[in-house]
Every structure is written in C-alpha cells, then in structure tokens.
Design goal:
Layout lengths: L1 H17 L4 E2 H7 L1 H4 L4 H17 L5 E4 L5 E4 L14 H13 L6 H13 L27 H10 L3 E5 L8 E13 L2 E8 L4 E6 L3 E7 L11 H12 L3 E10 L4 H6 L2 E6 L2 E9 L2 H6 L5 E5 L1 H16 L1
Antiparallel strand pairs: 1-3, 2-3, 4-5, 4-8, 5-6, 6-7, 9-11, 9-12, 10-11
Length: 318
Amino acid sequence: MAIAKAERLMNLALCLLGTRRPLSKRELRGSIEAYLEAGSDDSFNRMFERDKDDLRELGLVIETVENLDGETGYLARRDSNRLPPIQLDAEEAAALGLAARVWQQARLAGAASGALQKLRAAGMPEAEDSYDTPHSALEPRIPVHEAAFEPLMLACRDRRPVVFEYRKANAARPETRHVEPWTLECWRGHWYLAGWDRERGAERVFRLSRITGKVRSRAGAFTAPVPDVSTVRETVESWAGETATRSARIRLRTDCGYPLRARALSVRDLGDGWDELEVPYGHGLDAWLVEFGPDVVVLEPADLRADVVDRLRAVAKG
C-alpha cells in the first residue's frame, strides 16, 4: 500500500512539473493509472486532495489557476520548485552532520538522515566526523523518550493549542492543562515545554516526562502573543532552576550526586561518608533534590528544606 501511494504521488508530481499549462482534475485523472482505477468521482476527489496536500507537505509548490472557462487547473512551475545552489564549507558541513547524529534517538532521525543525504547529493562536502570513530569516547545525543515530544513539536510549529494531563512533582494526581505551546527546550537531560497556560493566564513551563496520556490538539488561534526565542529560552532556564538567586547548603553522600557536585560552589568533607555542599538555589531546585532521594539532606534555607520534605511526603503517599 505504501509503495502504491508513493508511486501515485511520484506520477502526480511528474505530471504537474512536466506541463506548461495548468491541468484540470479531469486531465490528471485520465493521465494517472491509479486515478483511473478510482471507483467513483468522490473517491477520486478525496484521493487527489490528499495527494495534493501530501506533495505540498513535502515541499512541492503547486499553483491553482482558473482558466477562461472557469475550470480549475494545477501545475508546479520548475522555477518555483528549484533550490538555489547549495554552497557549504567543511565546517558548516561538519555542523550539519553533527546535528543529524544528535537526533538519532528521536523520531526525527529519519528526516535528519534523509536531509543530510540530499545535501550531500547536491554537492555538500564530506566532512570528517570526529564523533564517528569506533573508539570515540564522546557520542552526542539528545534523548527523546517521551511520547509527548512529537505532537508538541508539531503543535509548536503549527501554532495549535493543546490539551494534556500533567502531574506536578508534588501532586498525587494529574490535572488537565490547556496550553498554547511556544517551544521545546532540552535542559540537563530533560525536555521542557514553554507556553501560555490559558486557565492561569500566564506563561508556564512543563516537563514532558510529567505529561500523562495523549496530547490532544485543539482548533482556534493563540490568545496570547508568542515571545521571541531568547525570552522563551530564559523562561525555561529560570523555571527549570538554571537562574539562581541565592545559595543553599546540603549534605550529600560521598560518591553520589555528581551533577550536584558539578554545580557546587564549595564542597567540604564531613566524614562518615557525607560531604557538605553549597549549591546555587533557584526555582526548581527542590524538585531536582528529590530525585536523589536519601542521598541528599537539605540543611538550609528552611523554605527549601520544607519544600523538599513536602515533595517526599507526596511521593510516599503515592
């Protein structure tokens, strides 16, 4: 079935690209075998409209023209569907190759690999990839395991509102959130969605791993303006805990919590298998500390200690 559709799309594209004048539906139906086999006019019309939309989604520019008799015709001008010469130097080619490798764990892997092959076929220089050696100690990856990633990525691209069930770190049950999605950001190995929460009337950031069930799209336009990329990035970093306004003191078991140690402002050996760390304290630190379980004890400030205890109690209650 997939092969038959691919052949039908190819034949339609060739017809539209090979004509000097617009072709009507009637002419296209008589020129493509798969359309001749359509059982009825309604069946052909549905098939043709889907194929036309698929070709446009693939990037083919299809013009709709009405002739003097009022009949609608279609064509794809070659000059409108011809890419300009692609000129990339070795460093730019290496950057694109690295970007394609980064996405290999995501469902974008096929698209990234296909795009790279097309660029190489168009003359992009082959770049030596230092990450592609069997003995390389570094292998760049952006892990994307959450099922919500792809529908949210498409919703951000198409500016479509979404609805999903979201469980906060200190909540026992998820709640419904109506969101206008802006962008996705990967921070410290986790994906976050930044957007406008309609019910709260404010911008919010959601961790994708806490989204439960399916992400459902909704019709209608955004009600709030979308900020520029740099503002959204700052929002994600702030809500995820990147922006620290003060510091906190914690006890950490020896040989544990290496991400915390990497951000520590100071480390002091307490003996008995414990260290004392001073770490930057910003929004989201309490949720991060909970992930280390019994290996972390908050010493100060008191409000951070209380937040961590509340989160641990909520987890214990299930």
